[in-house]
Amino acid sequence: MAVPPPPTGAPPTGASPPAARPALEVVVPAFNEAVRLPDGLDALGARLAALPVAASVLVVDNGSTDGTARIAAAWRGPVPVRVVGCPERGKGAAVRAGLLATTARYVGFCDADMATDLSGLDGALALLAAGHPVVVGSRRHPSSRVEDYSHPLRKVGAIVFNRLTRDLAGGVTDTQCGFKFFDGPLARAAAADLATTGFAFDVELLMHCARRGAPITAIPVRWRDVPGSTFSVRRHSARCLRDVVAIRMSARRPVRAASPASGAASGAASG
């Protein structure tokens, strides 16, 4: 795989930028993740360091009260880490803030618990470099290996939710897998239009990409249900459904003018 040239543009404001401009930036939204984050950063840093491009991590502290930001800033590993704050609560708000703070040619995000095996990074980067503007991990891909959900309601809820949202999200059958990677300019344009602050944000983000003509490529993943998720079926399902209704309403509005993604040809998911 050819190593892409470094992107152009000014570094983001806030924390000190990494010494070398990365070709790939991975956003990790974090709310009270002081316990799980160190191991997660160790795993992510090791995998990123093995890639054939310069990479870095951007941790978005989403109003944590347990020292998450301090722990992330103190982490030392084989790749640079920056920390930015997002006082607006919600995973969608945190991912939006993180994507908008990036400057790299390629960007993505993954969950702090690293529930999706990071071996998928190699394939995702290869597809991005080959011109695929959106690459998403899918637990419903026939080649995926998925450990069963710790709570049966989560599995049922995920199936129902994805059936309700597939047409909005460019045909993606698993919108909620926290392992998504993008052409950088496309991701930043889509994030700028993102209004959903809660857990349904993935649907809207993918919708904005698809409406810009970007094909979405689904890849197989190895995934395990890690205890301690901040998502609760009972607490958050109603909010997610309300957000989906709002996303459907927003889909009627015209797409804001933006540069088309390289290689974008259609809005259908593949793979």
TrEMBL record:
Any keyword S-adenosyl-L-methionine? Answer: no
Does the entry feature the keyword Manganese, yes or no? no
Domain named Glycosyltransferase 2-like: residues: 26-178
Question: Per its record, what are the GO molecular function terms?
Answer: transferase activity
Q: What's a BP term from Gene Ontology annotated to this protein?
A: protein N-linked glycosylation
Q: Which domain of life is it from?
A: Bacteria
Listed A to Z, the keywords are: Transferase
Residues of the signal peptide = none
Q: One Pfam family name from the record?
A: Glycos_transf_2
Alphabetical list of PANTHER family matching this protein? DOLICHYL-PHOSPHATE BETA-GLUCOSYLTRANSFERASE, GLYCOSYL TRANSFERASE
- Identification of the protein by name: Glycosyltransferase
Organism from which the protein derives:
Actinomadura logoneensis
Q: Lineage of this protein's species?
A: Bacteria, Bacillati, Actinomycetota, Actinomycetes, Streptosporangiales
